[in-house]
Design a protein that fits this description.
Aminopeptidase, seven-stranded mixed sheet, aminoglycoside N-acetyltransferase activity, transferase, Acetyltransferase_Eis, SCP2_sterol-bd_dom_sf, Nonspecific Lipid-transfer Protein, Chain A, 27% helix, alpha+beta
């Protein structure tokens, strides 16, 4: 058996890559949209005796990390045909992908995990959670009557794109784990309907001056076998608001669909204001699940890339990193908050010691150093160093990635 690990050589191999991914994930719609946005050099595949057997893609993203733009590799389309499983193909493709990201100076890798158990083996740590609301709009009234002075405008996705893109950029700039969106990502993710052919609507809120301050991207469809004829369900792909007035105006607009008996918000940040603004927040049926998993590809560049919650100096020891051996060692982080300098140091006595997966969670702001220590995933020299680590890695916003990829 001869195994070759390499990118797709051309568009023909890219189509085979798409066929395998569609099979592995039992996709009814295929991979046409994703393939149109994928370059062959973004792929890493395993070929067994000349036949493609395992796939992996890495999209070149720029992602906000505590308000700072950082290059990251968006790992996607990871799959192996069942007749080639248990041969170590995924490990080989993942290692090659990590090496390639390191060479391309992408210090962090992110992905949505079909199974977390797969990726924790490769040093990925939980970097964000996502929230889903599913509720009866008749029961989800606001606690206080909103003072809405603007108005809602209904647009198609083509009409809305130039209007809402600046709103999204302003909203995303200070945030944490939000991807800089290309036109392709808007098309294949944000504007993608749950069912092919279903119209996607965009409601834009303009304030009293006519300035766009928020928007909702959503679909509406009839509910099969519903007891009431004409019953509808609204699915919201994204709700972005630059202030509370915009958020409340969009919320009330969504609730104003008289035939809707269910509204589902499918990508909600953990620090979304709904629980604070609703009269009865339990009707949201709030569900939290794992979202983005992150892998530290280059410790020094990753530590230098982000902004910190305080000024200080901390030494960080990373235990043996089998997948990215160049990372193992001890680093001194010195930051004034907005900027940081990092250098390798030698000798015992690091302020904190942790494994690659825990470092990813800490960098993202998903877990604090104290939480990781209580879980046995981080060791600190003393309580003062632990509190310092908490202060340094604090983020202004909860980590949240609204886009699938």
């Amino acid at each position: 058996m001869t195994i070759e690990i390499r990118p797709c050589a051309d568009r023909d191999e890219l189509r085979e890559y798409g066929r395998i991914v569609s099979y592995v994930f039992a996709s009814e719609e295929g991979m046409d949209d994703e393939l149109a946005a994928t370059q062959p050099e973004w792929t890493v595949c395993a070929f067994v005796d000349g036949k493609m057997a395992s796939t992996l893609g890495v999209w070149p993203f720029t992602v906000r990390l505590n308000g700072v733009p950082v290059p990251m590799g968006g790992v996607t389309a990871v799959g192996t045909l069942p007749n080639y499983r248990r041969r170590g193909l995924l490990r080989q493709t993942m290692r090659r992908a990590l090496e390639t990201m390191y060479e391309r100076r992408q210090p962090l890798a992110i992905l949505w995990a079909s199974m977390a158990a797969i990726y924790q083996r490769f040093g990925y740590g939980l970097a964000s959670t996502g929230v889903t609301y599913r509720f009866d709009p008749r029961l989800a009234g606001l606690a206080q009557r909103p003072n809405i002075t603007g108005q809602i405008e209904l647009l198609t996705t083509d009409e809305a794109y130039p209007v809402i893109k600046p709103v999204f950029i302003e909203w995303a700039t200070p945030r944490n784990l939000v991807i800089h969106r290309s036109a392709e990502l808007w098309r294949v993710s944000t504007f993608r309907p749950p069912k092919k052919g279903l119209p996607v609507h965009v409601a834009v809120y303009r304030d009293a001056d006519g300035t766009p301050r928020g928007y909702a991207v959503y679909t509406a469809q009839g509910v099969e076998h519903a007891p009431d004829e004409g019953e509808q369900e609204i699915r919201v792909n994204e709700l972005v608001a630059l202030d509370a007035s915009a958020w409340m105006a969009l919320w009330e607009f969504l609730r104003s669909h008289d035939l809707a008996r269910r509204i589902e918000l499918r990508a909600v940040s953990p620090d979304d204001p709904a629980p604070l603004l609703l009269l009865e927040p339990r009707v949201l049926n709030r569900r939290t699940q794992d979202a983005i998993w992150m892998r530290v590809v280059d410790v020094q560049r990753a530590l230098e890339a982000r902004a910190y919650g305080a000024a200080g100096r901390l030494t960080i020891s990373l235990t043996a990193d089998d997948e990215c051996p160049w990372n193992s060692g001890t680093y001194e982080l010195e930051t004034n908050g907005p900027r940081a300098e990092v250098r390798r140091v030698s000798g015992p006595g690091a302020d904190i010691t942790l494994e690659p997966a825990a470092l990813a969670s800490l960098l993202a702001g998903q877990w604090s150093a104290s939480f990781l220590a209580r879980a046995g995933r981080l060791e600190a020299a003393d309580e003062a160093k632990l509190r310092l680590a908490d202060d340094l890695f604090r983020t202004a916003y909860a980590p949240f990635c609204p886009n699938g990829f």
